[in-house]
Structures
1.
Amino acid sequence: MNRTKVAIIGASGYTGVELMRILALHPQVELKVVTSRQHVGMPVAELFPSLRGIVKLAFVDHQVEVIADQAELFFTALPHQTALDVVAALCAAGKRVVDLSADYRFSARSLYEQWYQTHTQPELLAEAVYGLPELFRRQIPESRIIGNPGCYPTSVILPLAPILSRGLVAPGTTIVVDAKSGTSGAGRSLSPGSLYCEVNENFKPYKAGTHRHQPEMEEQLERASGIRPEILFVPHLLPVNRGILASIYVPLARPVTVAEVGEILNQAYAGETFIRLLETGALPSLAAVRGSNYCDIGYVLPGNGKQLMLFSAIDNLVKGAAGQAVQNMNLLLGLPEDSGLRTVALVP
Amino acid sequence: MNRTKVAIIGASGYTGVELMRILALHPQVELKVVTSRQHVGMPVAELFPSLRGIVKLAFVDHQVEVIADQAELFFTALPHQTALDVVAALCAAGKRVVDLSADYRFSARSLYEQWYQTHTQPELLAEAVYGLPELFRRQIPESRIIGNPGCYPTSVILPLAPILSRGLVAPGTTIVVDAKSGTSGAGRSLSPGSLYCEVNENFKPYKAGTHRHQPEMEEQLERASGIRPEILFVPHLLPVNRGILASIYVPLARPVTVAEVGEILNQAYAGETFIRLLETGALPSLAAVRGSNYCDIGYVLPGNGKQLMLFSAIDNLVKGAAGQAVQNMNLLLGLPEDSGLRTVALVP
Amino acid sequence: MNRTKVAIIGASGYTGVELMRILALHPQVELKVVTSRQHVGMPVAELFPSLRGIVKLAFVDHQVEVIADQAELFFTALPHQTALDVVAALCAAGKRVVDLSADYRFSARSLYEQWYQTHTQPELLAEAVYGLPELFRRQIPESRIIGNPGCYPTSVILPLAPILSRGLVAPGTTIVVDAKSGTSGAGRSLSPGSLYCEVNENFKPYKAGTHRHQPEMEEQLERASGIRPEILFVPHLLPVNRGILASIYVPLARPVTVAEVGEILNQAYAGETFIRLLETGALPSLAAVRGSNYCDIGYVLPGNGKQLMLFSAIDNLVKGAAGQAVQNMNLLLGLPEDSGLRTVALVP
Amino acid sequence: MNRTKVAIIGASGYTGVELMRILALHPQVELKVVTSRQHVGMPVAELFPSLRGIVKLAFVDHQVEVIADQAELFFTALPHQTALDVVAALCAAGKRVVDLSADYRFSARSLYEQWYQTHTQPELLAEAVYGLPELFRRQIPESRIIGNPGCYPTSVILPLAPILSRGLVAPGTTIVVDAKSGTSGAGRSLSPGSLYCEVNENFKPYKAGTHRHQPEMEEQLERASGIRPEILFVPHLLPVNRGILASIYVPLARPVTVAEVGEILNQAYAGETFIRLLETGALPSLAAVRGSNYCDIGYVLPGNGKQLMLFSAIDNLVKGAAGQAVQNMNLLLGLPEDSGLRTVALVP
């Protein structure tokens, strides 16, 4: 069989090594090129000993003109802003791109520019598709650029979209999203806050109400449901390597039963491979999704009936980044959506 | 100097070892008796090697008639329900008791009985004082029984009481309390959910909206402020040994400025040794209070001005249990309130 | 294709859930039966939410007469001693068994009985084969009973056997094995020492010089090399879920060069899928093998040339238990040895 | 009472914050100056929120001419080599110094220069005293410069010195020291290997046989015992914040009984406040010493009687650095040796 050649631009971070882990075992693609400005010439297995004997490439520089010919589909795992022009150059070379930065996630250019910086490729932004297959599956295969969703937004949009669509959220109210992420979400760059001794045995909120994933959630939830929600998003840093658990507090527009909530979620996601709705009253955990592409969703209606609680768990590096990127690649290439992604969480 | 003799009934759990850690260095008291049904005759230092060379006692059985004479003040660190009659027997023997179970925390017997079980000592319950010194300091010295607050309630009542008192909470709304606790909060008893491999690299909510600390918070907040709040309390289990971080989302009754919030909290707690108000915008962390008796409080007003966010951090075994119990003991004995409690968090 | 039906007797522990994780994705076998005395009737996914949607079985009781017909090959993951007669009954029913207890690992019955208890099935013990494929591959396919190696012995025998075979170990000397294991090695049973708060932020040796894996190592190293080594084995408990790192100090019989050591190891293992020899001077780590079936081996010759240091890393639940058991199953069934085992370590 | 004024040069690392934690509560000294080149002007409590309300200083630059007058005794917690001239300048200004770098630890200048770099202050080096009070207590009070011992050497010299002194080590043999350290030992500087996701759930050896603490151990053991031992030292990195556990394998010169070993250690250390000899067969753990200045020592004689095993546990930041430095300061100032150091390990 002819495997499709793929490349990763910016492969020396945690998203990069996770893409390599998944792609190395993917039956229908072949990883041909991995780039890292910082580690040009270094064998991948030297930086990431877990890939010893598995990925035999060395890092190269990411000059698009040099590497564009070597693959058909590109993952860009670069910092925000850096991806802008690299993606454009790859498109100009006729390639398809799954971009894991925020640069092609927003529909409204103004919103991107309000929270990030000037967007240098507005036409391409308009063309890009938000790569959340469970909600926007049809548009993905026809696109050249997939804006791979943020990790937190994935964990929030999936449980919330059907609830919002069905009018359960009381208008004018604020949905509180209290989310907790493992430390790999902060990336592999050097910062005092990412040191072992700062994170271990610690826990704290950060960027309370000011995180850039909040507008992303609000915009895509509106696209999915037709209703613009008002979200108060507070992330916290967990002393674990992987995983996001989002606790979502929804002021209800009207009384509902827990059975009705279950039915709404079930109708939305019953056929989805990567969404697991928990039985009534069960609550998700990070361990149950670690290393897998699942999003586990639980829901609880407390006594007074005024609020619905939604809980979701994903692995931030899989469904929140590399796994979802491969899911998007599968759709782009016409492969089975779960190809290379049928893994079970590593427990314990 | 004559040291006051004290005893711990039920000293083989995490609260017990923490009480011993603090009391061993307390300059004005002497630990004379420690009991443990399960470990009668075992030297304390065999069960807890950290106390080797420091606590030279062995565990004895907790027959009140035998041990009542050996100390003047007793800490009871027994499971809920077990404490009911032990505390009563100690009182009958003329002793003063700081009870770390839930058995003497509630003002309303009916509320206790709704969430726990029949209360066998209603007269003593009526007499007991809720031992949160920052709010109820005056009543403590005159009491025979101190109901030492629950760990979660301590972390929630302290930041919330002044806000509620000043009418900032919109009537009829729900205050969401999304709290996260280290695993020592689950105690030292054997349960699958407390195994290392189940907790490590994991995180999950539990008892969402049904935890027994919720009515305790609501009752004591009403006592402190005159207003009964409606709280939706969702605890989560953190992979750390110690610490509670509470994220509290308060729907506001009217627009406030962040300066006003700071002033309210400052007026309430400016003179308090064990409460540290963070500067505007700063957020607390578990590490900053680990091993200490502090409650750190931060506050944030997000853009839309509809909600106030309060964040608090305590060490669940210190300010959330043993440290607060010693603070209560100091008040009961007329000692400086911070005696034996001037410790600095262990960082890193 | 017709998948071979397999069963797991004793599937509610960590070895059990790991076997299920691997077998669920194995392309040539089908998991038909899982047993657990304690959880009869409970759906597997209720006990192990990671397997939700993946393993749809419920636990049954392990009466051999009832389940023997339902599978062709059995994994027994029972406590030592319990496996003795269950394995015998399965053999009597004409089934093949990979036993993950210690009951069929020893060649010398007397050695087993010295360290464990009376062996009730001495004929079967004589027939059983020690399932370390890299050293005893030829004997495995013809056997009915595979004694799946202990986790520590796997990590020690693999690096040491070639060194011993080539006469590098000074006769009459003691090889020090200072090994460190993640907590899943202690199993999922309830014991105070396995509680999160006891293991986390802690580290300690245990059973120094008296662990039952020491005679297993010595016996199998003699079988593999013809020379009986004297080993001083000291295990330590690590605050991680998974992994064994063994540091092995070998008094040398004669001066060697590091190149010679590399060549010896290379000759022994160059063709092995699951052994990765590190480049000279590189040292293994737990992270590089987590979740995979690899054994990574490093070697260092310190300045004075008197001692050779060997370092090995495995995942105790994979190469140290379930993965190796599946490797043995593949050999028994004539499947590719790495079938179902081509996984990459989960990093970070 | 007049408190002695002290200063910390280089206070923004983990040793610095630990010194501040201890000194803040020390009854006879007053911390007057803390320096940090990187954080000049920043309040200490901003960098280390654990010290909020406790240390009210801000960091200043470490120009000796400016700060020499402000304190009588100085702790230098600077990187190796940087300390060389700062210590000399402080001495020239008539101050006494406890230096926590390696710059004043070695007796033989040539050994220092072999493992570090040129020593610019050889006369001061000759004058400096190795600050291990349990072995060199008498020399400390008369000295101007204390070379505070390395963390690993402290954990190894203490258990080994009496054994070596009494001729128990077989001449010409190698003592294997397999040591494991928490991550704070690597300091607070930014390095990929200190990132949370690299250390957590990981474990690995490093600098096997080439670590610079090996010659320090050998030299000081010779000074203490008159016999130069040959040590093979292999450190490993533990996923905990604090603690060193050293497993020491001693080839015996002659048969001994465990009672004899116990007696030797007891004779050496019976009166020592900070050394706790465990009962026969008991093994130390990191948890039992966390946050305290204790060194716990255990000893085991395995069956064949050829090797003695010693195990020691310390908190690398306390007895391995800041606590020992304060112990040395107490001796220098004629204070009770345990002043400010009577703390109990934080468990759990």
2.
Amino acid sequence: MRSRIPGILGIAYPILQGGMIWVSDAGLAAAVSEAGGLGVIGAGGMPPETVEEEINKARRLTSKPFGVNIPILSPFAEGVFETSARLGVPVLTTSAGNPMTFTARAKEAGMKVVHVVSNVRMARKAQDAGVDVIVAEGYEAGGHNGFDELTTMALVPQVVDAVEVPVVAAGGIADARGMVAAFALGAEGVQLGTRFLASTDSPAHPRYKELILSAGDCATVITGRAFGPVRVLRNKLAEMILQAEREGMPPEKVQEMIGSGRSIKACLEGDLDEGSFMSGQVAGMIRELKSAREIIQELVEGYRRIAAEL
Amino acid sequence: MRSRIPGILGIAYPILQGGMIWVSDAGLAAAVSEAGGLGVIGAGGMPPETVEEEINKARRLTSKPFGVNIPILSPFAEGVFETSARLGVPVLTTSAGNPMTFTARAKEAGMKVVHVVSNVRMARKAQDAGVDVIVAEGYEAGGHNGFDELTTMALVPQVVDAVEVPVVAAGGIADARGMVAAFALGAEGVQLGTRFLASTDSPAHPRYKELILSAGDCATVITGRAFGPVRVLRNKLAEMILQAEREGMPPEKVQEMIGSGRSIKACLEGDLDEGSFMSGQVAGMIRELKSAREIIQELVEGYRRIAAEL
């Protein structure tokens, strides 16, 4: 695999685990890093004290590099950044906000910076901000999504053509086929979320994992298209939001109806009706739980086999 | 390239040109077929007499196999099918409707049948109907689009896993990078639309081609999401439709506002404000007009180079 990513991030394979609120805790992140990828603690929704505990826990579980993901618009962003920098977290991954916010300070603190984008303009801006790696995330990805709806196939080559820094593809990747496709498009790495969620190392509620395993190809929908698109598995909550949107309910009202705590209901409580079960379109490809190590080994071995067959 | 498609369709390379209303005429189809791909006359909107003329013209321009594309729900579908079968058109490509409608009769007439799908259920149905090749078309594709919004990265592997007949990937492919990616995902061929539209062999209005060449990554939008999604370049007409949709205008009213003849306005008249300029998300990757022959040669040569580098 031709890739600058392992050298930049200090990992064996250019495979990143996406930051997932309440799902990518220290345990999952450490398991991914131990297997040679980049595990990432998803700090979205966590106050700095909790993130500090998770970082310390990850340190006890692995001596390999790992990251902390900060959604820049999160109310805890500044505190989580300061905590991560103070504790010497090797990699900061940022998303959902201006890459200028933390990049310079993170690099001064010796961190590598990975920033997630969903169009070419954002990629150029991230490069200008000095990030080390750009994640180009397509419309098929689970969770928070860009407004421009560029898919991985269309987005990755256009970002690769626009910037010099290495590009990681995210969205639509659950096995080695997707990884080879990403590299063919010009990416130098892949980021997987849903696949690691449905792993034996993730703390997601068993009913959440079961939903992924039993999902078909059309299981996900976009809610909040007008104000903040999120890809989730279709359930009672998702149908309620879509119905309200179809009926023209104003975005503020929809957000009020959604309220807070929907991710906790999904990830920790497994509340099938009331939880927000974020997932990528690849849910339909995931048929069994595997460990993070198996997932990464299958990606690496599958990559070699498929690339040789092309 | 490992592919059953050349053997089935009698072509040199597993590269299909997508049927495009008012754009893929006999001239473009013959140019693609002459270059070793499968050229396809897009019969959408054409009465059988016009299609007969186009078929005869294509015959004069090439002795190689070509296809006729019939959107099954078109009012002319039955007449166009009968004409194509009577004239011994080698390949029928069908889309937007039930694959049972024409497949058996087409095969009795000695035609090969290619059917376009946008989810796994439709792919199984197409296989059951007896089609020879399935085109799995992702959300990033231009023109008429599925309701399920599955992207090429997520759709192709799931369709490949679900059926035995060979699968062609469509949507998001404009160069050899996309072609190699498609094969990595398990496809045995590719279908390109927008790339062939922006070719010196296409009859699209020069202003239409210029729009593609100057498009950025975020140039396209989906209109008619609730009743009949179509991916088009953002212009005055598209903005008007999106605005009406945001304001909750009923689908029938929106369709009434769109009226008919919008494709003719785009393709033949180059009316930048009032035309419906269908295009895939790859418009942003297309920087110059090329001949169909150059496009196909670059795909084939690029495939070998990129596959060797992986």
